[in-house]
Amino acid sequence: MAKRLRFVQLPHPQWEAKPRHDQPRKVCWNKTQYGHKRKFMQFRGEWIEQDGNTCSGKLRAWGEWEPESDLLCDLKGGDPKCGYPRYLWRPRCCARKNYRRLHNTDPFIFGERILYSNCGQIGPSREGLRQLDQGSVVVFGSSKKRETGNWEWMLDTVLVVKDFRDYDCEKAPGELQERVPPEFMTATAEPLASNSKKRNIRLRLYRGATPSDRVCGMFSFFPALPTARDKGSGFPRPFVSLPDSFLNPRSVRGPNGHGRGRDMDMSQLRRLWESLVSQVRSAKPGLVLGTWAEFPQRARSRP
């Protein structure tokens, strides 16, 4: 059987999480009655510099983290209309007894490997998203209309598939326990299983390639900025472009590139990945490829 090597564009909501008016220094776990949100976060991490060297220290980056977070500060150095963040968050990991009506976090950028487990995979037309093979590239981001009137694509995470594990959506905590860290169980597997509305749905957990465990030279990453280089404004998610057949700047909801007839060879995937790497590095002075993020601080369990 031929390998299903594909380049997938997976859009998700661009909206930034905001503190509650009655709790201005934190944000609670985002509920399913609201849309998914992005956060501009600070954590210890590792990254690859322009010269290819690996460094470690405090990083700032965009990502999805639906559980609680503490507000570190307001950011006022950049224009939010141009994509700059308004807030800087420190994520927290707080296990619960009940995960009903709580959003799960996907993709999950924390830990040894970036993980992608469920976003967009449910539905008969999404079968291709549950069949990607090693070497496939999944690009997460959002479509944004610029002040010029043009639509462009904001990138926040790139996952290069290293390996995978199929699992039952309702049984995610039990079936994935030995493959994922406890923080993933709390932020993703438990709320996913608790809010599943369909029975016997098989999904696929993808684990990303890393700089020390690459696929054809490729690894997973997220655009990041070392805290020491941030002048107090953060950075907009980088705008990237590829031919529309690979990256549609107007794509808001449906994933692209996962269907039949979209199989590619590894050299094609490598060229697309290299283009993204180059565009991220040139988007803002000092921007780097984040490759590891420390797990959010664990807090006392809540009801």
Characterization of this structure:
With 303 residues, the chain is mostly beta strands. The protein has helices at 172-176, 182-194, 266-283, and strands at residues 7-11, 26-27, 39-48, 54-63, 69-74, 87-93, 115-116, 137-145, 151-168, 202-208, 222-226, 239-240, 288-293, 297-298. The chain contains 3 helices and 14 strands. The mean pLDDT is 93.
Distance between the termini: 48 Å
* Strand and helix order: EEEEEEEEEHHEEEHEE
Question: Which class best fits the helix and strand makeup?
Answer: mainly beta
Low-confidence stretches: none
**Rg (C-alpha, Å):** 18 Å
Strand portion: 25-35%
The averaged pLDDT comes out at 93
According to DSSP, the number of beta strands is 14
Sheet with the most strands, sense and barrel status:
6 strands, mixed
Shape: globular
Task: Provide a compact summary of the structure.
The chain has 303 residues and is mainly beta. It is built from three helices and 14 strands.
